[in-house]
Write a structure and sequence with these properties.
Elements lengths: L1 H17 L9 E6 L1 H4 L20 H9 L2 E4 L14 E3 L2 E3 L12 E5 L2 H4 L1 H7 L14 E2 L2 E2 H23 L4 E5 L18 H24 L3 E3 L35 H16 L4
Parallel strand pairs: 1-2, 1-5, 5-8, 8-9
Antiparallel strand pairs: 3-4, 6-7
Helix pairs in contact: 3-8, 6-7
Protein name: Lysophospholipase L1-like esterase
GO biological process, one term: triglyceride catabolic process
Pfam family, one: Lipase_GDSL_2
């Protein structure tokens, strides 16, 4: 009898040992952000919120295919931090607050935001210089103060609060703040991309400072950071159309000037996928 019980227990233990583990819950990925994330003009643009200029080939869609599960992509061109909380008006209608898409079922959230709060794209547009002349960067200096550095520092508590609010809505989610790419090489490449060298260096320094602030706020809140700036070096708008990830003033690919093209989105998706699969320390 005892031998039989031991045999049955051994068999049961073997069954438990070789039994397949329970399947992990499917990924529920929520993507928040502005035009750097939405992919304006990259085919195919998604209905019905055409005013957001959201592509089905942006990094969230491509990463979601690699990660599996479902995607709620509410990225929208023109979005700023306030549009996380309030309805956003676009040229083709109003869209709900992006945080409405974040719920307790979310397992992954990426957020790329803040560029429009600083009007970085407008600054790059202002630096267009078809002829050698006065640099534009000095227009953003005032009595030794730098407008973009001051603006970046003022955004820090708002980024902190946004991360807290995402965590409150999705307490089980892995959260990642996404940085911005490289928009100019050192000293630029005037006149191919008509930004004077000194302005190109200022653009680089400004975006580097902003990305560092985003990284620090992410670390302070214990969430991840996705670095686009470092890997996009050498893929800036000065490079050939087959190499660059960001388009120049006159795009050669279907994309908005100084925004990611399809090649850029594919590479950014690979970076996102790799980063979110790496355990947070």
């Amino acid at each position: 009898m005892i031998r039989r019980l031991l045999t049955l227990c051994t068999a049961a233990a073997l069954v438990l040992t070789v039994a397949p583990p329970a399947h992990a819950a499917a990924e529920v990925y929520v993507a928040l952000g502005d035009s750097a994330a939405s992919g304006p003009l990259i085919p195919n643009q998604i209905l019905p919120q055409l005013g957001c200029f959201r592509s089905d080939r942006n990094y969230a869609h491509l990463s979601s295919r690699d990660l599996g599960g479902s995607l709620r992509d509410v990225t929208c061109s023109g979005a700023d931090i306030q549009d996380m909380y309030e309805s956003q008006s676009t040229e083709l209608g109003s869209v709900p607050p992006q945080l409405d898409a974040v719920g307790p079922d979310a397992t992954l959230v990426t957020v790329q935001i803040g560029g429009n709060d600083l009007d970085l794209t407008g600054f790059i547009e202002d630096c267009l210089s078809l002829l050698p002349g006065d640099p534009c960067y000095d227009e953003y200096q005032d009595n030794g103060r730098d407008r973009f550095r001051d603006g970046t520092d003022a955004l820090r508590p708002r980024v902190d609060q946004l991360i807290r609010d995402i965590r409150a809505r999705a307490p089980q989610a892995r959260i990642f703040v996404v940085g911005y790419a490289t928009y100019a090489p050192r000293n630029g490449c005037w006149p191919r991309v008509p930004v004077l060298g000194v302005d190109a260096n200022y653009i680089r320094a400004t975006i580097a400072y902003f990305n560092q602030a985003l990284r620090e706020q992410a670390a302070a809140q214990g969430v991840g950071f996705v670095d686009f700036q470092t890997p996009s070096e050498g893929h800036d708008p000065c490079k050939s159309s087959s190499v660059r990830w960001i388009e120049p003033y006159v795009p050669a690919s279907a994309a908005t000037p100084f925004h990611p093209n399809a090649l850029g989105m594919r590479n950014f998706a690979a970076i996102v996928t790799r980063t979110v699969r790496t355990p947070l320390l």
